[in-house]
Amino acid sequence: MPLTFDIVDVFTDRPFAGNQLAVVHGADALSTDQCQALAREFGFSESTFPGAVVDGREYATRIFTPEQEIPFAGHPTLGTAWALRSRGLLTADEATQVCGAGRIGVRFDGEQVELTAVPRDLAGPVPTDVVRSLLRALGLLVSDIAGESWVAGCGLSFVHVPVTEEALVRASASSHAFPPVAERLSGLGRVEDLLDAVNLYAVAGSSPHLDVHSRVFVPGAGVPEDPATGSAAAGLGLALVATGLLPEGGRYTIRQGLEMGRPSTLSGRVEATGGSATLCHVGGRVQPVASGEIAVPPGS
User: Fold this and answer.
1) Which GO molecular function annotations are given, in alphabetical order (predicted)?
2) Catalytic residue at 46?
3) Exactly one of 46, 114, 148, 225 is catalytic; which is it?
């Protein structure tokens, strides 16, 4: 019997922009290999496989890129919650997603969906020679750097590298994995969720509200460039506090996906106490694109 699915675009106010997501329903009995086959078939940066909703407010989900399962991601969290709510399965305005990174809060506010995540990794500043090797893979130079780089995340950790606006536009995506830097980065502090990923960003404005232009590259997971990355947006909040741009917390609006022709808007909010981030919130809108049925892949 085929599985039903929804395709949605996340972090956008119109279809055919933002980041694409496939949400496959009724997938409780699927094996890891079957989920991976479906994620590869859709070919989006992520596909999700939610389980049954409990009491209209809690559900477990698995998240897959075309290459691997991951513990957490932002646009899949928001898109999955929206799809479950649109089908009448999530009935509360506040819900909980259970995934590999733990329990992630989700809140509906009008047309906006927002996730709340707890900081997990923060380490830095990243040594210049490590940043240099990462930038080289993107066609950039050390002279393009515009501040300290940090490793940060709330379930998926990125190397967040501030660069000039001109350099950000000039960066080129690559399908090759970044040079191995995990050992060097682990020496900076506790890093448990490191992804082969770089978040390049340029900042304008001042505390407590920043405007950010971002580009995210995840070649090791089969995503040369991502049009909207909620997990990177959450981690960026930690980096903005650590670098002193939002020392007491605040808001930041991220523009992403412009260079890919899929413009996206992510609303970030980070809470901080004593110069340390305590909670990260990332929100955006979700647009329906398609629904249908797909065959169940052969079991392993």
Assistant:
1) isomerase activity
2) yes
3) 46
